[in-house]
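Here is one such protein, fold included:

. . .
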Amino acid sequence: MTVRIEGWASLYDVVDNDSDLVSPGAFDDSLKIRSRIPMLFNHDPSRPCGVWKSVTSKDKGLWVVGEVTDPDLKRPLLDKSLFGLSIGYNTKLSSKDNGIRRLLKVDLIELSIVSVPMCYGCHITKTLDWTR
C-alpha cells in the first residue's frame, strides 16, 4: 500500500502561527548536504511514515513529493481529513523585526505530515492511491 502525495511543506515570506517567516534560500545549504530527509507523522521520530522522493526549493516555497507507506494514514489522506505539512528544523541564522522572526538559514531535519500545520498554506495539494 502506497499513497503518493505532493504539496507545499513551507512557504516563503508567509508569517506562520508562531510568528516565523521563512526567507527564500533558507533551505539551500541544507538541501545541498542532505541526500535524504525523514518523513514523519506529527513530528514524532518514532512515527516514520514513508519516503520523500523529492524536496525542491521553488519560488513559492519548499515543494515535496513523497510516498506514504503507513497503512493507518491511507484513509485520512485519501479522504483529505489529513492534509497538513510541516518542517522540522534547527535555526542557523535569523533576524527579528516587529515580533516576526525571519528565518534566513535553517538546517532541515525532517518533514512531517501533520494534523494541524503551523502555516495554513502548507498542505498536501495532490493525493493518489498507488495500492500495490
